[in-house]
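User: What would this chain look like folded?
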Amino acid sequence: MKKLLAIVLCAMMLLSVVAVAEETPYKIGFANIGEAVELQVTVKESLQRAAEENGVELVYMNNNMDGATAVQNADNMVQQEIDGMIEFNIDESVGPTIKGIMDDAGIPMIAVDIAIDGCTFFGANNEVAGQVGGRRLGEVAQERWGEEPDILLLVYDSTSGESPMKRVTCMPDGLRETFPDFSEDKVFMVDAGVDAATAQKAVSDFLTAHPDEHKIAIGCYHDIAATSTLAAIETAGRESECIMVSENEYGYLDYLKANPEAPENECWVGGVAFFFTQYGDYLIPAMISVLNGEDIGDAFYVNHEIITRDNAETYFADYLAG
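Assistant: Here's the prediction, encoded as structure tokens.
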């Protein structure tokens, strides 16, 4: 009888341990790039949904498009005793500091969209995204003008570092799929930064300085650059002279919602999709794998597609209906 009782007690203790283990899931930190535009909110919601579906606790913080805030958030994450860190930060220069904070605490980290040396990278395949955007510009230039653009203007953001800038610096490669002889001396760049007013002024100044070019293709690094560039084009009254593609889909989708019928001489002709609604489906399982001791490699990427008026409903019907 005593032996049977001991077995029962052992079984109850084992079940208790299992129950405790099930009640103490991994605690994963996610520091988001910001919440200023729709795509950033979409990424947040994607991670929250995926964390719930995978039974892990998500500690969320907003880096607010600021490097100093990102460092403070990293310190806070350590204090909250997270098991793993997913870092989405605009300021490349503070990446090593954040990595050092996590290393000192023994916390593995995945870097999102902005690479951090020594971390697994997830996000855009920046080179491919740039080529996809440039390809669209080439196709529209051929349809609209029947010849190559006079100029390719790349509106970039210097704060994000060299690797993400390939989203625009690789656009000439895509454009050359239609116009193989497009000259490098026809490629110009202006720095939009992360401020809409600064971006609009930079593009306005460029257009003012180039009054004799009437076929201008423009590639924009992010939604802030794109909406500001469109405002500059419209203010200058040069819609018929410009075509524009943006990197990221939500600025373009918002433009389509605001303009359900294409205006005459429509210049915003596409957005390169990053499918931010799927970020959590990639990132949360990947971090769980890391915490389980698995090797997930140096990098993994989302797919990219060009979104236009013709296919936007296919990919983003729910968003456009909202």
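The first strand starts at residue 27 and ends at 32. If you want, I can go into more detail on any region.
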